[in-house]
Amino acid sequence: MEKKLTFVKTWEASGNAVFEPDMIVAKAYKTVFASYRPKHFLYYQKNNKNKLGEAYDSREEMNKFNDSGYKDFKNQNYLKKYFKGITVAIKHNEKTTQSIEKENLEVIPKSKLAKFFELSIESMKVNFSYYLACQPERFTQFEQMAQERISKFVQGADAGESFRILATSTESTPLADEQIDWLKLVLKVKKEKLYFSGKKFDQLLTAHHRKYAILGASDGKDSWSKNHFVDKLRRDRHPVLSIQSELKEILARGQKLKKKQKNLIKKYQISLEVQNFCSLLAKIGHIRLQMRIKGWMPLYESMKKIIHAIAKKYDYNYGLIRFCTVDELVSLSRGQIISKDLLEKRSECFLLVYEYPDVTILSGKIADDRFREFVPVENLSNIDNVKGTIAMKGKIVGKVLLFQWGDDMNEKIKKITKNEKFVLVTGQTRPQIMPLIVKCSAIVTDEGGITSHSAIVSRELGIPCVVGTRIATRVFKDGDRVEVDANTGIIRILK
After folding, report:
1. Going from the N-terminus, what domains does the chain have, and what CATH number goes with each?
2. In what order do the strands lie in the sheet with 442-445?
3. Half-sphere exposure of residue 89: CA atoms within 13 angstroms, side-chain side
4. How far apart are CA 229 and CA 231, in angstroms?
5. Euclidean distance between CA atoms 13 and 480, whole angstroms
6. Which three-class secondary structure state does DSSP give residue 142?
7. Separation of first and last alpha carbons in the chain
8. How far apart (Å, rounded) are the C-alpha atoms in residues 38 and 60?
9. Distances (CA, A) of 462 to 93, 326, 392, 488
10. Sign of the alpha-carbon torsion through 367, 370, 371, 372
């Protein structure tokens, strides 16, 4: 690999092994639906407390990849093909998931199991070729262009806020739908004084679980169990009037936002060109969530069942078998044995190096040493503030609640007290930590842009949010008292 490339951390995950980054990125980069395709990628994981893996992309290539976002998404032919392709990919994933779920994977022939696995891999690869193409960083130039154009109509700081309002989707998300349905369920339980052991309660909970369990999945975690929702309800101490008020507020969000957008356009006579820029960003942010929640998350849950079945048929540990590459696991599903000793070494430490078109897996000290060649240690000891992109304006002072993937979300929630404001500092937010997000007063992330999950959620909740700081999780510690100034995008430690 070229030594001149500079690798920067782009995301992290807990519970992944070799299989996941190979499938999610290395395979998808080869076919990603974009005019420029990155050719290098690293994923490093050591057997640390949270089994936390770190993904790195080349800064030089990501700049080209992100610049291509403006070229691609301003092209109407590309847009038409892109949105059509996403629709087809999601439907294909749903169909693949349904076909897997109908089968008893424990008893079907090995040959049929192998075909199911290869089918799911191909389906997932297509989905991610579109998903990676709409990552938030690819819209940096669109955001800049929209804000520059808006500033011709709206003066000063109001220009940025007008942009964020216009670039927010008014469509309901699966996250908001879950909030609404959950509050309705809680109201029904409290008003009718339903017993947790009763038939009606079980019917209500089963329906909610069936519809929304997937929101808890990803990053090595399984879907939420029914007990997750029972425990959540047991902890709820809100009176009926408070729940009704919250429900009313959530239900009114979409209409309030539409009204705000309409008033802004009328007040400042914002051009149709700017409206279209912002509408595209809003649509991308919304469909990105749909691709995650309706597309690849359910399919990945089904794929895990296939991998479990392959492990059982060939006498491998499920956790260990995931340290195979995609191609190795496909070969294993066909009966070609993979060294368990090799997989054990990878489970302690591995470095996945993608250099188009090849994937190389290093383990042990070699992986450690090679990783540090690519990514030297960065000294952040003297830094007491970070700057990022404003996703939702506001300013608060609060205590840092640092969340790393693999942390116990419920233990983190227990640290939140009523009389204190807490700032969630994390690499990036994802749907499965919504129960934690809603209890915090601000969000600060290392990664993300205006179309990222954290940006969308913060605007839904109306809390300050700064994304794309790159180093917040390494600068701030649990309990640090910080000022989040989401009007300037600066977060600083208070002495």
Report:
1. 7-135+285-374 (no CATH), 154-270 (no CATH), 385-493 (3.50.30.10)
2. 385-387, 490-493, 481-485, 395-403, 422-426, 442-445, 465-467, 389-392
3. 28
4. 5
5. 24
6. helix
7. 44
8. 9
9. 33, 41, 7, 17
10. positive
Q: Which amino acid is at 275?
A: Q
Q: Output the pLDDT for position 96.
A: 95
Collapsing DSSP to helix, strand or coil, 358 comes out as: strand
Q: How far apart are CA 289 and CA 218, in angstroms?
A: 13
The residue length of the chain stands at 495
Q: What is the pLDDT of residue 2?
A: 52
Write down the mean pLDDT value for the chain. 91
Please give the structure tokens belonging to residue 463: 């809390």
Residue pLDDT, tens place only, 90-122? 999 999 999 999 999 989 999 999 999 999 999
Task: Extract the tokens encoding 490.
Answer: 């600066």
Answer whether 62's CB lies under 8 Å from 38's CB: yes
Q: Which of 260, 284, 237 is nearest to 439 (CA)?
A: 237
Q: Is 340 helix (H, G, I), strand (E, B) or coil?
A: helix
The whole-angstrom separation of Cα 214 and Cα 198 is 25
* C-alpha to C-alpha distances, 449 to 38, 274, 280, nearest whole angstrom: 19, 19, 14
Q: C-alpha distances in angstroms, 301 versus 124, 265, 417?
A: 12, 43, 34
Is the bond preceding residue 357 a cis peptide, omega within 30 degrees? yes
- Residue 218 CA to residue 208 CA, distance in Å, equals 19
Q: Are strands 395-403 and 481-485 parallel, antiparallel or unpaired?
A: antiparallel
Distance of CA 300 to the CA centre of its chain: 14
State pLDDT tens for residues 275-299. Answer: 998 999 999 989 988 898 888 999 9
- Residue 39 identity (one-letter amino acid): K
Q: How far apart are CA 170 and CA 184, in angstroms?
A: 21
* Contacts of residue 199, Cβ cutoff 8 Å, sequence gap at least 6: none
Give CA–CA dist 374/105, Å, rounded: 41
Instruction: Report whether 455 contacts 448 (CB < 8 A).
Output: yes
CA separation for the pair 141, 91 (Å, rounded) = 30
Which residue reads 């209500």 in tokens?
204
Helices (H), 416-462: 434-437, 453-461
Question: What DSSP string runs through 17-83?
Answer: -SHHHIIIIIHHHTT-SSSS---EEEEEEES-TT-EEEEEEEHHHHHHHHHHHHHHHT-HHHHHHHH
Coil, strand or helix at 443: strand
Instruction: Dig out the tokens for 237 from the structure.
Output: 């101490």
Residue indicated by tokens 């408070």: 242
Strands 465-467 and 442-445, how do they pair? parallel
Place of tokens 């419920």: 410
